[in-house]
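Sequence only, no structure available. Ideas?
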Amino acid sequence: TVDPAVGTKFVTPVAPTVVDGEIVYAVTKGVTYIPTQISDTQWYVTAYVEDGYVFTDGAVTEWLIDTTQFVTPVMPTVVDGQIVMPVTKGVQYIPTQISPVLWDVTAYAEEGYALTSGAQFEWLIDTTQFVTPVAPTVVDGKIVYAVTKGVTYIPTQITGTQWYVTAHADEGYAFPSGAKTEWLIDTMTARA
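Reply:
I predicted one. Tokens follow.
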């Protein structure tokens, strides 16, 4: 507005905003905004009036602006026994192995970012792969084992033609609950 008696132009500075971690200043004729960095993500912004202009009474001319971007980590997944870390802007995932199949994965905020309050940032990830053993068969008087990734078959001879076969899960693998893992095989009668 302009005071017709004196020709003075009144202006009101507009508080800066933050978009994607960057300070955005309103285009305000007659106002210059000067930021002063206080920390990695905090700025003190002062509005200065330009020549020929006057701030309106009670105008706010100073702001403390925080450019921190808040991010929410995403839980990693497991594919084929391997942890797949999500790609989350501003988040770094650090896995720590606890056992051959258990991992503690912790999410950390990168510089300029902070984890959203209350967001989960730590997970216990089990990379165990479940596999179901396949019953051995008999072909021409010999035991034939299915090629099953993650399974080792152990035969124990009971009599000349009778075998007790046990399936064992290899490291990193497990059998689902209720899976059949033992068989009595007779190579003479081809019964399983």
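The chain has a mean pLDDT of 92.
Hope that gets you unstuck.
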